[in-house]
Each structure stands twice: as structure tokens, then as C-alpha cells.
Amino acid sequence: MRYQITGKHIDIGEALQTHVRDELGNVLQKYSQRPTDGTVIFSKDAHEYVCETVVHLSSGLNAAAKAHATEIYAAFDACVEKMDKQLRRYKRRLKDHHKDRAEPVEHLMGSSYILAGEGDSHEDEPETLQPMIVAEMETKIPSLSVGEAVMQMELAGAPVLVFRNEKKDGVNVVYRRDDGNIGWIDP
């Protein structure tokens, strides 16, 4: 497994990097035999340290966790504990959904745009009705079943996931509703 351990505006020592590799490796080995790479980012927010961890599994799923603490090791340990809880909770579902899958999840490439909001403009009236594009980037659209899409969205902690439905071969969306339930858009 490849690790990318970085710090935003803080130095990450060898001891912390070794601790991250050992602890994260133990959790992933316990619940998932197929991790490909993991990214751990440490930053400082006022008096607290923040640890964000994203692990990519060969099945195409991503597991993400984030934690805050007053000490950097405590922030990482809390983050690993959240990751452990997520993987433990979804271990059975991961096995059930991927036992028949012989290959990793197929990804299509798509464009993702970030549009300027109303508060971003200094003018009272825009010149055109077209929104201003602030950023444009490539994004991957996985081919999943609806259950896998919901699981991917929950593991990644994302509010919405766009995916290609394997059964109907169309683009679908799952999202977290305001009432806490999951919504599914199948055009």
C-alpha cells in the first residue's frame, strides 16, 4: 500500500509517519485486504490539530475520516478510530456487494464545474444570464449498483454521488436528504 502523509503549514516528523503507517496499516489489514493507497493530511486550526484520512480500495470505494484534537497524535488516533468504525460497520456489506465482482469498479471521465454564486459578483446586474465558471476539472464517474453507490457515498462522507447504474446503464444520483434518508434520482 502507498502512503502519502503530508502536513499543511506544519512539519511531519519521521516518528509520526511511522506511527501513521503502522496504525493505519493494522486497521486496513483487519477489515480490508485490498487497499491501494492512503492519504493522510495534518493541519492546524487555531489551537487544534486536524487529521483527514482517505483510503482508496481496489474495489473502487473510498473510505474517509476526519478528526480534531489538541495534540497531533490524538487527532490521528481519533481519525483512525473513526475509520476503524466505518470499515467494521460496512465489512459485511463490502463483502456482499463485491463477492461476485471479478474486476474493480469501472470509472468514466466527466467534467465537474464550480460556478460562482450570487455573492461572488460585485455588480448588481450580470451582463449575461450565463453563470461564471470559477473552476473546471475532470472527475471519475463509477459504474455501480444503487446499493454500492449508497455505500460509497456514506464511506466517503459525501452529501451526493453521481454514478452510472450498472443495471440500467444510465447516469443516476444518490444524495442525503434533509430528513436523514437517502434519495435516489433515476432519470
Automatic annotation (TrEMBL):
<dbReference type="InterPro" id="IPR032528">
    <property type="entry name" value="Ribosom_S30AE_C"/>
</dbReference>
<dbReference type="InterPro" id="IPR050574">
    <property type="entry name" value="HPF/YfiA_ribosome-assoc"/>
</dbReference>
<dbReference type="InterPro" id="IPR034694">
    <property type="entry name" value="HPF_long/plastid"/>
</dbReference>
<dbReference type="InterPro" id="IPR003489">
    <property type="entry name" value="RHF/RaiA"/>
</dbReference>
<keyword id="KW-0810">Translation regulation</keyword>
<dbReference type="Pfam" id="PF02482">
    <property type="entry name" value="Ribosomal_S30AE"/>
</dbReference>
<dbReference type="GO" id="GO:0043024">
    <property type="term" value="F:ribosomal small subunit binding"/>
</dbReference>
<dbReference type="GO" id="GO:0022627">
    <property type="term" value="C:cytosolic small ribosomal subunit"/>
</dbReference>
<comment type="similarity">
    <text>Belongs to the HPF/YfiA ribosome-associated protein family. Long HPF subfamily.</text>
</comment>
<dbReference type="Pfam" id="PF16321">
    <property type="entry name" value="Ribosom_S30AE_C"/>
</dbReference>
<comment type="subunit">
    <text>Associates exclusively with 100S ribosomes, which are dimers of 70S ribosomes.</text>
</comment>
<feature type="domain" description="Sigma 54 modulation/S30EA ribosomal protein C-terminal">
    <location>
        <begin position="130"/>
        <end position="183"/>
    </location>
</feature>
<keyword id="KW-0963">Cytoplasm</keyword>
<protein>
    <recommendedName>
        <fullName>Ribosome hibernation promoting factor</fullName>
    </recommendedName>
</protein>
<comment type="subunit">
    <text>Interacts with 100S ribosomes.</text>
</comment>
<comment type="function">
    <text>Required for dimerization of active 70S ribosomes into 100S ribosomes in stationary phase; 100S ribosomes are translationally inactive and sometimes present during exponential growth.</text>
</comment>
<dbReference type="GO" id="GO:0045900">
    <property type="term" value="P:negative regulation of translational elongation"/>
</dbReference>
<dbReference type="InterPro" id="IPR036567">
    <property type="entry name" value="RHF-like"/>
</dbReference>
<dbReference type="InterPro" id="IPR038416">
    <property type="entry name" value="Ribosom_S30AE_C_sf"/>
</dbReference>
